[in-house]
Amino acid sequence: MAGHRRAPILPVDVVGAGISGLSAARSLLEHGLEVRVFEKSRGLGGRSATRRIGELSFDHGAQYFTIRDERWAQAVAPLEEQGVIARWEPRIVRVLADGAVGKAKVSERYVGIPGMSALGGALARDNEVVRETRIASLLRSDGGGWNLASDDGPMLGPFSAVVVTCPAPQAADLLDDVAPALAASCRAAVMHPCWAAMVAFGESLGLDFDAAFVDDPVLAWAACESSKPGRATSLEGWTLHATPEWSAERIEDPAGEVAEALLRRFLHLVAEAEELSPVIRVAHRWRFARSAQPRSLGQVVDGEALLGVAGDWTGGDRLEGAFLSGVRVADAIADALSPAVG
Ligand SMILES: Cc1cc2nc3c(=O)[nH]c(=O)nc-3n(C[C@H](O)[C@H](O)[C@H](O)COP(=O)(O)OP(=O)(O)OC[C@H]3O[C@@H](n4cnc5c(N)ncnc54)[C@H](O)[C@@H]3O)c2cc1C
Questions:
Q1: Does any ligand 1 atom lie closer than 6 A to the CB of residue 112?
Q2: Which domain range does residue 84 map to?
Q3: Which atom from ligand 1 is nearest to the alpha carbon of 66?
Q4: Is residue 53 part of a domain?
Q5: Is residue 254 classed exposed, middle or buried when 0-12, 13-18 and 19+ CB atoms within 10 A define those classes?
Q6: Distance, CA 48 to ligand 1 centroid (Å)?
Q7: Fewest CB atoms within 10 A around its CB: which of 115, 120, 285, 323?
Q8: Same structural domain for residues 134 and 152?
Q9: 139 plus 265 within the same structural domain
Q10: Is the overall model pTM greater than 0.85, yes or no?
Q11: Which DSSP category does 18 fall into?
Q12: In a domain, 58, yes or no
């Protein structure tokens, strides 16, 4: 594809180095375009994240991923060979409201090694990612492309096109003034919050399962981190996810209170060991955790303005969907740019 282009045109900018942003950047490179990625955090991978606390690491965002689409399969196959990802074969159950334990659906699950954040690091390899740079606004440059204003930093650019991959409400904030129709689509996308608690015990809980989907108004999911490959530790760490409804109600509560509430719910309903005290108990607030989009957002690119959006909320949900949304927007941006370069 690159050989058919006259290029060079200005680089394309990608805002955000989550899985959709890194996927967009990879695909844009494959189209023969030059790419820069700006990421506000220090780490890569966005919600495919790992928090280290002492000797333990907690995947407090995405827990694992599945592989269904061929393009995703091709992207992650080398990572399995390199030991960056591996199969996780947990004993998973469904805990019902009365504490009864049932069977959960069996599917092939993969995790990053030694944590889910390894996935972002590996997908970023061929891309130039500028970290700790939050993009605050997009401005037309004199030559017709785009400049980006970062927090407290110099003006960045110019860029021929910009792909915005932040969660939908944050994408809308960036696009309101420059692409109102695209911004309106972003505003229509619903994203649910999630409180995640990370707890660890000095002794094993002795449960006969490693992870549980929980049918409960408070707790939705519990996973034993030490059951995942590549995470040997003397402590037993668990990640607990609250339900979207409970998270929304408690979204402004202090993290310490939330961690305690989720811990107590877990010990009562799942572990049945209410007297245990953890050695670690912290919580993380994901304001925009999961996409509630039932189907694709439709248009993801304003071809005239050369602006695009990607992210799980554009219709994919989950890591695989985020990856595919990046491929989709990169194809659309490359198409939109092709009259200028072909
Ligand atoms: C609690 C939880 C559990 C989950 N469980 C699973 C699971 O088990 N399996 C699964 O497949 N998926 C799961 N998901 C969903 C999965 O994590 C997401 O679908 C996926 O990570 C979304 O990727 P993304 O690139 O669209 O967005 P993000 O990962 O949110 O990436 C967006 C990036 O943009 C950056 N950014 C935002 N604003 C700016 C700015 N102004 N300037 C620069 N950078 C910016 C952010 O820092 C972030 O790195 C879970 C998510 C959460 C939160």
A1: no
A2: 64-115+192-290
A3: 11
A4: no
A5: exposed
A6: 6
A7: 285
A8: yes
A9: no
A10: yes
A11: B
A12: no
